[in-house]
Design a protein that fits this description.
Helix content: 55-70%
Number of helices: 4
Order of helices and strands: HHHH
Shape: flat
Structural class: mainly alpha
GO molecular function, one term: protein transmembrane transporter activity
Subcellular location: Cell membrane; Membrane
Membrane topology: Single-pass membrane protein
Family: Belongs to the SecE/SEC61-gamma family.
GO cellular component, one term: plasma membrane
Oligomer: single chain
Strand content: under 5%
Length: 107
């Protein structure tokens, strides 16, 4: 099939799995570039990290785009509608399974 491919255009492309050929899938330069650098914050006392946590939480919560009251009402209605639908579905399956078991066991 590959011999029917035209020879011009994008150059040769590798075929097959490199792991089977024993060739690394990541070059050494790429691997070293992706390595995680050690965190220098380990020298800071644990108490400072705990104290800094709450202001960071407040800062992140200010970035949140909160839904409006109208959106929350719509979402709540949708959730309750699906809740009612799924409850009815489970109740129906349970009822039909009960009838089926009675038919099989009580002859």
């Amino acid at each position: 099939m590959s011999e029917n491919q035209p020879k011009h255009g994008a150059g040769a492309r590798p075929t097959g799995k490199r792991q089977l050929a024993g060739v690394s899938t990541t070059s050494t330069a790429t691997y070293k570039g992706k390595q995680v650098v050690a965190n220098d914050d380990d020298d800071a006392p644990r108490q400072n990290k705990v104290v800094a946590f709450m202001p960071e939480v407040v800062s992140e919560m200010r970035k949140v785009i909160w839904p409006t009251a109208r959106q929350m009402l719509n979402y709540t209605i949708i959730v309750f509608a699906f809740l009612i639908l799924l409850t009815g579905l489970v109740a129906g399956v349970d009822f039909l399974a009960g009838i089926g078991v009675e038919k099989v066991l009580v002859r």
